[in-house]
Amino acid sequence: MGKNREITIAVHGIGYEEFASLKWRQFLRGFSLAVAVLVLAVLIASYRGHAQIPLAGSLVLVLLVAAVLAVYRSSIRRIYRQSGLSGMELSYRFDRDGWTVRRGGEQVRVLWTRTWRVRRDGRSLMLYPNRKSVNLVPLRYISEEQLAQVLQWVRGEK
Questions:
Q1: Model's pTM, two decimal places?
Q2: What span, in angstroms and rounded, lies between the C-alpha atoms of 142 and 156?
Q3: DSSP letters spanning 48-81
Protein backbone atom coordinates (compact mmCIF):
# COMPACT_ATOMS: atom_id res chain seq x y z
CA MET A 1 0.00 0.00 0.00
CA GLY A 2 0.99 3.65 -0.21
CA LYS A 3 3.23 5.50 2.18
CA ASN A 4 0.53 6.70 4.58
CA ARG A 5 -1.86 3.79 4.28
CA GLU A 6 -0.05 1.04 6.17
CA ILE A 7 3.13 0.60 8.20
CA THR A 8 4.61 -2.79 8.99
CA ILE A 9 7.15 -3.22 11.78
CA ALA A 10 9.06 -6.46 12.40
CA VAL A 11 10.08 -6.90 16.04
CA HIS A 12 12.94 -9.33 16.63
CA GLY A 13 12.84 -9.67 20.37
CA ILE A 14 11.94 -7.32 23.17
CA GLY A 15 14.96 -6.27 25.19
CA TYR A 16 15.26 -6.35 28.95
CA GLU A 17 15.51 -2.54 29.03
CA GLU A 18 12.12 -2.08 27.35
CA PHE A 19 10.48 -4.73 29.53
CA ALA A 20 12.03 -3.45 32.76
CA SER A 21 11.04 0.13 31.97
CA LEU A 22 7.42 -0.91 31.64
CA LYS A 23 7.44 -3.11 34.76
CA TRP A 24 9.08 -0.38 36.87
CA ARG A 25 6.52 2.15 35.69
CA GLN A 26 3.67 -0.19 36.67
CA PHE A 27 5.25 -1.00 40.03
CA LEU A 28 6.16 2.56 40.97
CA ARG A 29 2.67 3.81 40.19
CA GLY A 30 1.20 1.58 42.90
CA PHE A 31 4.21 1.58 45.23
CA SER A 32 4.58 5.36 45.30
CA LEU A 33 0.89 5.70 46.14
CA ALA A 34 1.28 3.25 49.04
CA VAL A 35 4.39 5.04 50.34
CA ALA A 36 2.67 8.43 50.03
CA VAL A 37 -0.31 7.20 52.05
CA LEU A 38 2.02 5.74 54.70
CA VAL A 39 4.05 8.96 54.95
CA LEU A 40 0.88 11.03 55.13
CA ALA A 41 -0.48 8.84 57.94
CA VAL A 42 2.77 9.14 59.89
CA LEU A 43 2.87 12.91 59.40
CA ILE A 44 -0.73 13.29 60.56
CA ALA A 45 -0.07 11.09 63.59
CA SER A 46 3.08 13.08 64.42
CA TYR A 47 1.27 16.39 64.01
CA ARG A 48 -1.47 15.27 66.38
CA GLY A 49 1.13 14.08 68.87
CA HIS A 50 0.14 10.40 68.66
CA ALA A 51 3.40 9.16 67.22
CA GLN A 52 7.02 10.12 67.18
CA ILE A 53 9.39 8.21 64.98
CA PRO A 54 12.94 7.93 66.27
CA LEU A 55 15.87 8.09 63.88
CA ALA A 56 16.38 4.32 64.12
CA GLY A 57 12.75 3.75 63.12
CA SER A 58 13.18 6.00 60.10
CA LEU A 59 16.30 4.10 59.10
CA VAL A 60 14.44 0.79 59.34
CA LEU A 61 11.67 2.14 57.09
CA VAL A 62 14.20 3.35 54.51
CA LEU A 63 15.96 -0.04 54.55
CA LEU A 64 12.62 -1.81 54.20
CA VAL A 65 11.74 0.27 51.13
CA ALA A 66 15.20 -0.43 49.63
CA ALA A 67 14.75 -4.16 50.24
CA VAL A 68 11.33 -4.16 48.54
CA LEU A 69 12.83 -2.39 45.51
CA ALA A 70 15.75 -4.85 45.33
CA VAL A 71 13.44 -7.88 45.54
CA TYR A 72 11.19 -6.45 42.84
CA ARG A 73 14.17 -5.78 40.57
CA SER A 74 15.32 -9.38 40.83
CA SER A 75 11.78 -10.61 40.12
CA ILE A 76 11.68 -8.49 36.95
CA ARG A 77 14.87 -10.21 35.74
CA ARG A 78 13.47 -13.65 36.52
CA ILE A 79 10.15 -12.95 34.79
CA TYR A 80 11.96 -11.60 31.74
CA ARG A 81 14.19 -14.69 31.45
CA GLN A 82 11.21 -17.03 31.80
CA SER A 83 9.01 -15.14 29.33
CA GLY A 84 11.10 -15.72 26.22
CA LEU A 85 10.62 -12.10 25.15
CA SER A 86 14.23 -11.75 24.02
CA GLY A 87 13.68 -14.20 21.15
CA MET A 88 10.06 -13.38 20.36
CA GLU A 89 9.31 -12.62 16.70
CA LEU A 90 6.37 -10.27 16.20
CA SER A 91 4.98 -8.32 13.29
CA TYR A 92 2.92 -5.17 13.80
CA ARG A 93 0.86 -3.59 11.07
CA PHE A 94 -0.54 -0.12 11.62
CA ASP A 95 -3.09 1.71 9.53
CA ARG A 96 -5.51 4.58 10.01
CA ASP A 97 -8.18 2.30 11.52
CA GLY A 98 -6.10 0.30 14.00
CA TRP A 99 -3.24 -2.08 14.52
CA THR A 100 -2.61 -5.79 14.07
CA VAL A 101 -0.05 -7.90 15.86
CA ARG A 102 1.05 -11.25 14.47
CA ARG A 103 3.08 -13.95 16.17
CA GLY A 104 3.53 -17.15 14.24
CA GLY A 105 0.10 -18.19 12.98
CA GLU A 106 -1.79 -16.09 15.52
CA GLN A 107 -3.06 -12.62 14.71
CA VAL A 108 -5.02 -10.02 16.67
CA ARG A 109 -6.58 -6.86 15.24
CA VAL A 110 -7.44 -3.88 17.48
CA LEU A 111 -9.12 -0.72 16.23
CA TRP A 112 -7.85 2.62 17.49
CA THR A 113 -11.31 3.30 18.88
CA ARG A 114 -11.02 0.07 20.92
CA THR A 115 -7.43 0.67 22.05
CA TRP A 116 -7.58 1.58 25.72
CA ARG A 117 -4.35 3.60 25.80
CA VAL A 118 -1.25 4.36 23.75
CA ARG A 119 1.90 5.54 25.53
CA ARG A 120 5.42 6.27 24.43
CA ASP A 121 8.53 6.51 26.55
CA GLY A 122 12.18 6.74 25.57
CA ARG A 123 12.37 3.04 24.69
CA SER A 124 8.98 1.78 23.53
CA LEU A 125 5.61 2.45 22.06
CA MET A 126 3.09 0.83 24.40
CA LEU A 127 -0.24 -0.27 22.98
CA TYR A 128 -2.89 -1.23 25.53
CA PRO A 129 -5.68 -3.26 23.94
CA ASN A 130 -7.35 -3.26 27.38
CA ARG A 131 -6.57 -2.20 30.96
CA LYS A 132 -4.53 -5.29 31.80
CA SER A 133 -2.54 -6.05 28.64
CA VAL A 134 0.21 -4.15 26.92
CA ASN A 135 2.02 -4.69 23.65
CA LEU A 136 5.54 -3.30 23.56
CA VAL A 137 6.97 -2.07 20.28
CA PRO A 138 10.63 -1.13 20.88
CA LEU A 139 11.42 2.23 19.28
CA ARG A 140 14.65 0.83 17.81
CA TYR A 141 12.48 -0.93 15.20
CA ILE A 142 10.49 2.19 14.19
CA SER A 143 11.74 5.17 12.23
CA GLU A 144 10.78 8.65 13.40
CA GLU A 145 8.56 9.11 10.34
CA GLN A 146 6.73 5.85 10.97
CA LEU A 147 6.23 6.72 14.63
CA ALA A 148 4.90 10.16 13.74
CA GLN A 149 2.40 8.61 11.32
CA VAL A 150 1.23 6.01 13.85
CA LEU A 151 0.73 8.72 16.48
CA GLN A 152 -1.32 10.73 13.99
CA TRP A 153 -3.57 7.71 13.45
CA VAL A 154 -3.87 7.28 17.24
CA ARG A 155 -5.14 10.86 17.48
CA GLY A 156 -7.59 10.23 14.63
CA GLU A 157 -5.73 12.38 12.11
CA LYS A 158 -5.70 11.12 8.53
A1: 0.70
A2: 20
A3: TTS----HHHHHHHHHHHHHHHHHHHHHHHHHHH
